[in-house]
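thread: overnight batch results

M.L. [08:02]
morning all. the overnight job finished for the chain we discussed friday. pasting input first so we're all looking at the same thing
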Amino acid sequence: MIAPSSLPDIPLPSGIRSRYVENVNGLRMHVLEAGFGSPDRPCVLLLHGFPELAFCWRNVMIPLAEAGYHVIAPDQRGYGRTSGWDPDYGGDLASFRLTNLVRDVLGVVAAFGYDAVDSVIGHDFGSAVAAWSALIRPDVFRSVVLMSAPFAGAPPLPFNSANRPVASPPEDDVHRELAALPRPRKHYQWYYTTREADEHMRRAPQGVHAFLRAYYHYKSADWKGEAPYSLKSWSAAELANMPTYYIMELDKDMAATVAEHMPSASAISANRWLPDGDLAFCSAEFARTGFQGGLQWYRCALSSRFNSELQIWSGRRIDIPSLFIAGKQDWGVYQNPGAYELMQSGACTRMAACHLIDGAGHWVQQEQPLDVGRLLQAFLYDMFGNQRRRQ
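M.L. [08:03]
and the structure it wrote out:
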């Protein structure tokens, strides 16, 4: 790891600072903060996904600080300037499991001297960490906002099985079926579990900067091929309707996949939500650390090794106030068929609203930060505004 003192400055908006917090569940946690100048503010926590950083919340942090909050956004385990995690494919995979990521989040909250925070807000894979934080510790997290990745609930326990023959877990045939399609395909999450995935992206022929530019563009509303809709089932025929950043060509890696959708020089110059200078910071960070830290999250999620631990909360639902925000042009809402509906019908019992923002793809808090900021401010005011006034 490069010493923090030798790393370049982060191109942060005025009012946001970068700092380190020691001994957070074995990590030296790098965090961004806004609203830190006034004492006794309530806190909100922002959790990024893949392949992003705390920096990707930069345009949402100031509106939340202006609403009266101490806003904390960490580089999560495996990312950015946070250190103390194992970067090797064959290393400590268990440290990246969901329950330990929740422990990381609790460590951040405690390190800043809070018994509870008004909201934990997560995007993409950070949405999963936010959901599990809310499920496991509703006493600490008073509300939850999920972005772009719906939460369908804890995995079920085997039920009414005492008098039945012991059965092996059913094999998921969808991967064999995807490979057997006339246009052979593979699921991106299973690709992300392979040893080669990090190398393909970190050593992309076009360079990390161009790789990330194409990746972010292809999954944004700037790519005009986005027209997502609810899929009928978890089947090869249905999944194959999604773009190739989700259901990839069998013989292509992710760098080659997104290279086909590299935006033009004029489109890059016109991009206001991710100017090239901001992207340069992100690409330099991933060029330095690689992508394996984030890919470990996918390996844990897809491994049956950690499923039994999550079954401790089988049948439990998120009972704190909840909000869902995503881009209207985001396939992430529908990539797990039925999850969006399950989240609203049972997994979250106090869902205030689900907002799909037009003009945003997967990177909703970056593509449309003003709309996201307004929705977050309104939700938090509805939940806590009157209470704050009484205090």
